[in-house]
Amino acid sequence: MSPETRYARSGDVNIAYQVLGDGPPDLVLVPGWVSNIDIFWEEPGLARFLRHLAACSRLILFDKRGSGLSDRVTDTPTLEERMDDVRAVMEAVGSERAALLGYSEGGPMCALFAATYPERTSALIMIGSYARRVRAPDYPCGPEPAEEKAFIDELEGAWGTPFAIDDRAPTQIDNERFRQWWARYLRMSASPAAAAALTRANYEIDIRHILPSIRVPTLILHTKRDRVMEPCHGRYLAEHIPGARYVEIEADDHLPWLDGSDAILRHVEAFVTGTRPAEVLDRVLYTIMFTDIVGSTETAVQSGDRQWRDLLEAHNAAVRQELAAFHGREINTTGDGFVAVFDGPARAIRCGSAIQAAVRQIGVEVRIGLHTGECEVQGDAVTGLALHIAARIADLASPGDVLISRTVKDLIAGSGISCEDFGAHALKGVPDEWQLYRIGA
Q1: Domains plus CATH for the chain?
Q2: Alpha helices in 277-344 (DSSP H)
Q3: Choosing a second label site near 63 at 20 to 30 A (CA), which of 32, 89, 363, 407?
Q4: pTM for this structure?
Q5: What pLDDT digit, counting tens, does each position of 88-126 carry?
């Protein structure tokens, strides 16, 4: 019998979840590609896998927005929105802190969550996962662009059949019962168009820049003959997450509840129940915003002190209103600008565009720079190189611009936010050249 399915509210979206086991600890399972938590329990191997996890934790399952029993959405969900969904489910079940286990496409979101909310993450486990899905000149893992397109073209024509079972579950190719379940599982998890859109978004994910910011205990598991995610994906994660432990499992299947599942469960149980509590963390991943009024000195001279003061107060009120609307946190003011931090890059970009529109109505133009990076937190103070990078990016912006770093761009896959190439630039006092992008209107 499957656990009761309930719903948590995440913004305007209902997220389906289930809880089984008592814990401690709490363990949040973030599924890959697509999912349906009710159909999970129709596959004996998967049901056994979940019950084993629940025997050593309070296991929290959920369907990502747009998939399974959760609300269907018109836009492809971003990693940022998926983090909101995890927080909503944790709050619904009263979980203040949990270990996150993400397999396949669920892994990148777990990694981003661990870097962004270290105080709510006791441990990070990634199984058969990746930092970047597709091959690049500086990343020799994953499919080529032509392979990516061919897979998506095939998906839309074959959805509803045991699609891609030969790669994801090669040990089950001749198991007719499993083939029928897999086809039903896919049908009940997403429509063909939704699955194709999710796949395109997954191909755009690139979290390589945030891996060094992860400071929670981390376990990377990968099967040796995984045909979907070559082991080099897992090795890359382990090499770039500080202190991560990497284990290759002698197995063939990509799906973690099939071949190799006993070894996977042993490693997960030992890690979750035996991990020492992480040290008190004072480093957090933020998206930093710098704003600056264009021509502030000239405007102050022309308008006089009293009129300039009134204009500045109107500007400050408008900026603070938009920061509150998009959950930004004001860190400092610079006399004619703001420094603020956000827990998600898409939210920060939308806030930047809203600020531009709001201050334009009072006759002010601002330039805005955004960068996502690791920050040092001491009380209410936020410091670190990432702030300097965001400030330098803002310096390069023209009136009305929102400029972002390549790191920000890589984290907004699926958001629908359009970016224009702004070229590579040297940032004063910061090593290397930085690829920048301008947010489209």
Answers
A1: 6-274 (3.40.50.1820), 283-439 (3.30.70.1230)
A2: 296-303, 305-325
A3: 407
A4: 0.84
A5: 999 999 999 999 999 999 999 999 999 999 999 999 999
